[in-house]
Recover the amino acids of this structure.
């Protein structure tokens, strides 16, 4: 793809069949790569069908077509209906395929731990030791430059046979961050994909064979975006933040408002 952001308006036009061939191919690829887009397309398709069925066409007085023309029209209508049914089945499959509810489970894991329950700072190495083999190859970053300390680590089922490693960070001003790492479901791409749950934000991306999702409770939007971008970069490179990045994260933290959590 060209990297163009797929907007809701583009999806509307795509469902209406009014995109040019190049743009339609881009949207189709994005829908194939992103289950959330596939669900939107499926919902729009169902909405279009419901609207079409609810509109009663005005009566038209037209001459009866020749018998051969009627047969041709009937065949065309049958083919069109078959294509519509096939498309609906495909979208339904995309909408309810394996792992389609992974994001809901990710939010559940994020909400499942609390910074209020952390009574003492524990060394990150000790926290990770028990779960180091939960997701082989997972990279867990040091976020101390952003005044975030690793205080919670767990692993649990996410979707199907896949397990997710969750690392939880606590800030000095009420911030709570979760980073989930799990074998790729094919739902994310290399660039950041945004998600939201009320006041909470999340970004997901793919790095090699693994998917990463970083989730926050009420962190300043600009600060969280900067943090997500740099965690994505370090997860792909498996290297710590450089000094310039550390300074940018510290400055972003100092200039932002306390978290809402």
């Amino acid at each position: 793809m060209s990297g163009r952001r797929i907007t809701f308006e583009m999806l509307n036009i795509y469902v209406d069949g009014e995109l040019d061939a190049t743009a339609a191919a881009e949207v189709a690829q994005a829908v194939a790569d992103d289950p959330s887009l596939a669900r939107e397309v499926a919902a729009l398709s169902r909405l279009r069908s419901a609207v079409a069925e609810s509109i009663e066409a005005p009566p038209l007085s037209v001459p009866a077509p020749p018998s051969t023309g009627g047969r041709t029209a009937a065949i065309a209508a049958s083919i069109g209906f078959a294509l519509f049914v096939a498309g609906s089945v495909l979208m339904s499959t995309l909408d309810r395929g394996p792992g389609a509810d992974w994001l809901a489970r990710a939010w559940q894991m994020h909400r499942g731990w609390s910074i209020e329950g952390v009574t003492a700072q524990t060394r990150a190495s000790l926290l990770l030791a028990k779960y180091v083999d939960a997701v082989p190859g997972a990279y867990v970053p040091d976020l101390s430059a952003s005044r975030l300390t690793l205080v919670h680590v767990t692993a649990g089922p996410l979707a199907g046979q896949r397990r997710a490693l969750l690392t939880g960070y606590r800030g000095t001003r009420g911030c709570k961050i979760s980073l989930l790492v799990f074998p790729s479901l094919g739902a994310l791409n290399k660039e950041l994909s945004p998600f939201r749950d009320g006041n909470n934000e999340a970004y997901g991306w793919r790095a090699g064979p693994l998917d990463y999702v970083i989730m926050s409770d009420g962190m300043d939007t600009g600060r969280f975006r900067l943090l997500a971008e740099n965690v994505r970069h370090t997860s792909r490179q498996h290297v710590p933040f450089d000094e310039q990045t550390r300074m940018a994260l510290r400055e972003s933290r100092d200039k932002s408002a306390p978290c809402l959590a």
